[in-house]
């Protein structure tokens, strides 16, 4: 049974509830031995994806809540941010999030793909040229050395419900890039709560997707389980749900705290 999760949000991202202390309390009650808190990062321009992440002005509160919660926690707690990738923000991640703020780790969570000045939410994308753009962006992100784990790497399969040759190629490219960069990939517990969709072999969760993870395991990827908790009660339960998914398809995940080098 997994005893850690490193994908945890707070109310500051504007679409979750609870504070760090609430997640730690629930994780401890669930038998966790380690927790990582990684809310959606702020950007220097608060107009960038404003409805789904904290503002720069909220960072002092985030750091204060984390410091207080860590001091009172009976288990080790690490903290960081979940970040998109765009070349314009590389120095922001390196010099500000990690440098100035002192983030202990960064999660790569790619939700958007740019095209013609617009950003499209990848679970809604069904256009193969946009998929190719998304894959290229993902490969670029994984090559930067900025990220410590890769959240829901199969998120794009929410829109691409059929495993065509092009979709399989996208899966392979992403998996190979994560392996080359030595970045653990997470089976995401939140996706298993989403309404099921029709896939090649019947109804399935939008993510995680069995075929992707079988390919990842066969390729030798480091596979972890995270909750992607947006409510305190999901702090460790989501990771356990992800673990059950992995075990059911013959995959034994690595403990997240170990894969990220914290234990």
3D structure, described in words:
By secondary structure, the chain is of the alpha/beta class. The protein has a single domain, classed as Alpha-Beta Barrel (TIM Barrel). Helix content is 35%, strand content 17%. It has helices spanning 20-29, 59-72, 90-100, 128-142, 165-180, 210-219, 237-248, 256-259; strands at 4-5, 34-40, 77-83, 105-108, 112-115, 118-121, 149-150, 185-188, 197-199, 202-204, 223-226. The strands form 4 sheets. Strands 1-2-3-4-7 form a 5-stranded parallel β-sheet, covered by helices on one side. The protein has a two-stranded antiparallel sheet with strand order 5-6. A two-stranded parallel sheet has the order 8-11. Strand 9 (197-199) and strand 10 form a beta hairpin. The protein is globular and about 50 Å long.
Features:
263 residues, alpha/beta, TIM Barrel, five-stranded parallel sheet, two-stranded antiparallel ribbon, 35% helix, Histidinol-phosphatase, PHP_dom
């Amino acid at each position: 049974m997994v005893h850690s999760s490193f994908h945890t949000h707070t109310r500051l991202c504007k679409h979750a509830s609870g504070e760090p202390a609430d997640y730690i309390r629930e994780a401890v009650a669930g038998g966790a031995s380690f927790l990582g808190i990684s809310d959606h990062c702020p950007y220097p321009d608060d107009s960038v994806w404003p409805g789904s992440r904290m503002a720069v002005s909220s960072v002092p509160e985030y750091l204060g809540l984390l410091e207080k919660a860590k001091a009172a926690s009976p288990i080790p707690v690490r903290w960081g941010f979940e970040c998109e990738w765009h070349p314009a923000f590389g120095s922001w991640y390196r010099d500000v999030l990690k440098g100035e703020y002192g983030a202990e780790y960064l999660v790569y969570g790619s939700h958007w793909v740019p095209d013609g000045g617009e950003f499209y939410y990848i679970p809604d994308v069904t256009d193969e040229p946009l998929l190719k753009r998304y894959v290229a962006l993902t490969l670029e992100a994984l090559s930067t050395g900025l990220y410590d784990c890769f959240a829901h790497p199969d998120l794009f399969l929410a829109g691409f419900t059929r495993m065509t040759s092009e979709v399989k190629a996208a899966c392979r490219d992403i998996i190979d890039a994560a392996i080359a960069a030595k970045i653990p990939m997470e089976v995401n517990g939140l996706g298993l709560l989403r309404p099921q969709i029709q896939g090649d072999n019947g109804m399935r969760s939008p993510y995680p997707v069995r075929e992707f993870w079988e390919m990842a395991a066969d390729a030798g990827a480091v596979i972890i389980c995270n909750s992607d908790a947006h409510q305190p009660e999901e702090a460790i339960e989501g990771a356990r749900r992800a673990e059950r998914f992995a075990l059911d398809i013959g995959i034994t995940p690595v403990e997240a705290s170990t894969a990220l080098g914290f234990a």
